[in-house]
Amino acid sequence: MQASRQNIKVQKIVATLAVILFMIKLLAWYLTHSVAILTDALESTINVITGFIGLYSLYLSAQPKDSNHPYGHGKIEFVSAAIEGTLILIAGMVIIYESILNIYSPQKLQMLQSGLFLIFVSAILNLGVGIYAIKIGKRNHSLALLASGKHLLSDMYSSVAIIIGLIILRITDYLWIDSAIALIFAIVIIVTAVKILRQSIAGMMDEADLKLLDNTVTFLNTHRNSDWIDLHNLRIIKYGSILHLDCHLTVPWYYNINESHSTIDELETKIKTHFGASVELFVHTDACLEFSCKLCQIDTCSHRKNPFIQKIDWTVENISTNSKHQLS
């Protein structure tokens, strides 16, 4: 719950910043009549909408489980990110349209110095809050916060490009540069939108996160206990800031229920130490079989049927299969 409250707090900052920056960019456009700044302001209207959509999704995902949502409400973050990506994509298309129109009917710009200063201020604010949102989003596994942070950074990049382009325009007096900047800006935000959509759809479809799996497997290999004879059928599903981890753990066949449960508790403690408290672990225990002796590292086992041959290092590939490991 602490992570959820932190996510909501950061998203409130993002939503508030979106409103402030929209007004700043609107003023900059009013002063300069630059189509590049207009498109930046137009993209900021999307920031306002998505900022509050993201805030609502984080509030909803933080709600406790209920009978209708036994795994919680975290999936709403993927929906929020998909909406945000779609709106960013639409903004990019509109920017391209406006830029092409301006190529044929360019407007003389005015008060560029004041406009450039306002855009510079907005870029600095976007950079600071964007980096912070991404940092917290990664720490708390929040896709909605990550999407907001990446959106702010893409906004910052486009603002920097606009500043550079308008400075060149001021020096050369080539009006077509204004439209060229806007077109480049549109391409950047369209690419950002596609990435956000791709990530949100992957989350909705419970696509395997190979980076997260690799991180988990590396940790388990490093901290494995000798009575974790085998671990397989590992699956990780993300629901907002909650990670659901399922696996089958092979333990000595002679362990009683309490001993098996103690082994699972030890595994859960290590996992939560690494990933934080927002992890739900569901472990199915299997009893070892005769072929397990060849890879079992328990030196004191009095029931061994075969000598130990070698330790099997777990990998993303072999730990994800639904079968016990064995040596050929």
What do you see in this structure?
This protein is mainly alpha-helical and 328 residues long. It has two domains: 203 residues, Alpha-lytic protease prodomain-like (Up-down Bundle), CATH 1.20.1510.10; 110 residues, 2-Layer Sandwich (Alpha-Beta Plaits), CATH 3.30.70. The protein has a three-stranded mixed β-sheet with strand order 1-2-3, covered by helices on one side. Helix 8 links the parallel strand 2 and strand 3. Helix 2 packs antiparallel against helix 3. It is elongated and about 90 Å long.
Note the main attributes of this structure:
single chain, 328 residues, mainly alpha, Alpha-lytic protease prodomain-like, Alpha-Beta Plaits, 2 domains, three-stranded mixed β-sheet, 9 helices
Question: What is the gist of this entry?
Answer:
With 328 residues, this protein is mostly helical. It has helices spanning 2-32, 35-61, 76-104, 112-140, 143-172, 176-204, 210-223, 257-275, 316-319; strands spanning 230-239, 242-251, 279-287.
What is the C-level CATH assignment of the largest domain?
A: Mainly Alpha
Find the CATH superfamily of the largest domain. Answer: Cation efflux protein transmembrane domain
Gross geometry: elongated
Q: Mean pLDDT, nearest integer?
A: 81
Helical content (DSSP H or I, runs of 4+): 55-70%
CATH topology of the largest domain: Alpha-lytic protease prodomain-like
Number of domains: 2
How large, in whole angstroms, is the Cα Rg? Answer: 26 Å
Largest sheet data? 3 strands, mixed
**Relative strand content:** 5-15%
Low-pLDDT regions? none
Instruction: Give the helix tally.
Output: 9
Order of helices and strands: HHHHHHHEEHEH
